[in-house]
Write the structure tokens for this entry.
Amino acid sequence: KAGVTQTPRYLIKTRGQQVTLSCSPISGHRSVSWYQQTPGQGLQFLFEYFSETQRNKGNFPGRFSGRQFSNSRSEMNVSTLELGDSALYLCASSLPLAGGLNTGELFFGEGSRLTVL
Amino acid sequence: TQLLEQSPQFLSIQEGENLTVYCNSSSVFSSLQWYRQEPGEGPVLLVTVVTGGEVKKLKRLTFQFGDARKDSSLHITAAQPGDTGLYLCAGDTSGTYKYIFGTGTRLKVLA
């Protein structure tokens, strides 16, 4: 069973640019969550999608956005990049129970490491 | 606002020693999970605890959920170099499985 796949694994951008990261969840998983991981702040929740709808959102500015497609693949976009956006961006998928609640087990990808210069 | 505080932040011990990592909060959690993350990889789930006072064992790892469901501990017996990694607790306050992660404990076990 293939795991969560994130692309690209590494990327370097400059301030003011925008970036799009992609996440393919485990087959059958319909919930996709995104997290930002930095040494100073740890793992911070960005947002969660289920059936193409954003169900939960963390405390990040509007420059951070995401979407989910009908095949459950998800993308997140960061516009007008700042130096502080340098981080490891992790995607996690989970298997929903009946009623749309998740099992609680998050399966993480290896992450996309973004460096903003 | 950081809801989950982990201690210690860093821990370096010799192989064979025992250790305990703590995860504390002022909030009540519907459930709490522990993950381990190794360099270059995403976190991997170790355990989920749901009931106050619950104790779960995973080989040499013992996890406990506080009676009031506000805190948890992870105890490792006879640590091995393979236990090296970043240990993260994650709590769900709303029962909807939106997990907030703790600050992390970076463990290094020396051979």
